[in-house]
Amino acid sequence: IRPDLVRLLQYPVAILEADHTGQRLPEFDSVAVGTIPPGENSTLTMRQIGRKLMWNEVKVMACFAGVLLLVAIIMSLALVLFFAPIVALLVENISTAAEYFLYTENSSSTLVATASLLMLFVVECLVLFLVAFIFALVRLQDVIRQRFAGRITNSQTFSFIRQVGLRFGWLMAVVALLGMGLPFVAEKIDDVMYNNPQDANWTLILLAVPVALLVVLNLGLWLLRGFRMVGRLFTRSAVKEFNLNLDKKAEPVAV
Fold first, then answer.
1. DSSP code for 197
2. C-alpha 68: how far from its chain's center?
3. Residue closest to 32 by CA, chosen among 249, 230, 183
4. Of 36, 47, 79, 106, which shows the fewest CB atoms inside 10 Å?
5. CA-CA distance, 53 to 75, in Å (whole number)?
6. What does the pLDDT average to over 190-216?
7. How far apart are CA 125 and CA 123, in angstroms?
8. Quick one: pLDDT band at residue 199, thresholds 50, 70, 90?
9. What is the mean pLDDT of residues 29-57?
10. Average confidence (pLDDT) over 82-95
11. How far apart are the C-alpha atoms of 209 and 211, rounded to whole Å?
12. What is the rounded distance in angstroms from the CA atom of residue 173 to the CA atom of residue 195?
């Protein structure tokens, strides 16, 4: 909508020039709704432009609200499947590190390192969810806006929405799968570390789980193309996909 906002700010100047020279009011070339013919006077013209732009925006936001609800439901399910098994593991690891700190001298650095690694893991997970959620919504709102602007067809719109949905759905499925698998990995590590309690290295035991969580999470996202899906959501917009030029006004296309 940026080009339309710029033209809307410049249009009163064109009206004043037309009034000063006694010429007919100029047309308003909108990216969103195409060419808007002038009215009988400047007041009716501005009212007509505002009404058409606002009505187009209402249609875009109405469709986007439905898309937002669907995307939010998918991400909510992925969040539950991911964090439900992970939270207990994080709490247990922090509790063990705190207990080690209370009963062992010079163990503050181990507690800080463990907490920092776990915090890094949680932050990365949250950033991953938020980035995927935001970019999926941005791409979907963009393609809806381009459709109502008449710059792409229904088939192109549905094709692009399907692509974004598959990328977002695949990423959420990968994250949920990793969330259910990471506690199993942590349990195996604990079994190996506690095999000989008398010679156990508690610093290594406490750091092994958060390090394993970070490594397995990133390795799993790389192997299962999770990072690739994030990259595609970031780079592939409707403008690039259909080679649209936003500096040109909207023109009707065949549906």
1. G
2. 11
3. 249
4. 106
5. 32
6. 74
7. 5
8. low
9. 82
10. 84
11. 5
12. 34
